[in-house]
Amino acid sequence: MPDRERRSYEDLDVFKRAFAMLKPVHDLVLTFPDYERFDLANQMRRACKSIPTNIAEGYARRRSPKEFCSFLAMAVGSANEMEVHFRTARELRYIDDATHDRFMKEYQTIGKAAERPHPPLALRRCRRAQGHGLDQKTPF
């Protein structure tokens, strides 16, 4: 969708994908042992909510390249966090390999998409922001 047609963060495919993962993650963690309810399950619920939330807030602040990039970086960080949580869940045998692989693939896709929800816009703004205090290693 051309940038001029985007009226909301809800128009971003990366937001749609991240938001679509909320219910599957919440349903999955309900199957974890009770003693994980306030540990791994809670962390997973919070991290999966953080991704679309940061995309939405970053979109609202997109006129400030530094803030825009910062919120997108947080979304990428939360996607990476979800990958670690799924590896942990598989290692602890809370999920099988097929479930792990399915969720990992989706969160890897989301993380990559959050790096560049709209490449020309994101790259241009974030490169300018790099000159204003952002770490030069920022992947945007």
The helix tally amounts to 6
Average pLDDT number:
85
H-E order: HHHHHH
Radius of gyration: 16 Å
**Kindly, what is the distance between the CA atoms of the first and last residues, rounded to a whole number of angstroms?**
20 Å
Name the overall outline: elongated
Which fold does the CATH topology refer to?
Answer: de novo design (two linked rop proteins)
Q: Can you tell me the residue ranges where pLDDT is under 50 for at least 5 consecutive residues?
A: 132-140
Number of distinct beta strands:
0
Q: Helicity level, as a percent range? A: 55-70%
Measured by DSSP, the beta-strand proportion falls in under 5%
Number of domain modules: 1
**CATH class descriptor name:** Mainly Alpha
Any guess at the CATH architecture?
Up-down Bundle
- CATH H level, superfamily name: 23S rRNA-intervening sequence
Category from helices, strands and their pairing: mainly alpha
Biggest sheet layout: none
Structure characterization notes:
It is elongated and about 45 Å long. It is mainly alpha-helical and 140 residues long. The chain starts with 12 loop residues before the first helix and ends in a 10-residue tail after the last helix. Helix 3 runs antiparallel to helix 4 (65-91) and helix 4 (65-91) crosses helix 6. Mean pLDDT is 85; it is low at 132-140. It has helices at residues 13-20, 22-29, 40-60, 65-91, 97-115, 119-130. The chain has a single domain (9-130), classed as de novo design (two linked rop proteins), CATH 1.20.1440.
